[in-house]
Amino acid sequence: MAHEVTVMGRDGCHLCEVAEAEVARICGELGVPWRAEDVDTDPEWRAEYGDRVPVILVDGAEHGYWRVEEDRLRKALKP
């Protein structure tokens, strides 16, 4: 099964920048596509994730927030 990771964050958020860098590194090593989305571009995203950014989604489901748990993320992305 092919996985996809999304980092839900916002501009100017230091933790979001750190999470994006970590996700980029991990996903790059594993060959998993990822993207970043700005919660402030959509009122529903802002309401859902705005107070917990960055939020990490794996295959569209919430995986974690505030920090990337590398071992846990790698485990979730195993084929």
UniProtKB/TrEMBL annotation:
Organism encoding this protein: Amycolatopsis iheyensis
UniProt cross-references to InterPro entries, sorted A to Z: Glutaredoxin-like (IPR008554), Thioredoxin-like_sf (IPR036249)
Domain of life: Bacteria
Protein name stated in the entry: Glutaredoxin family protein
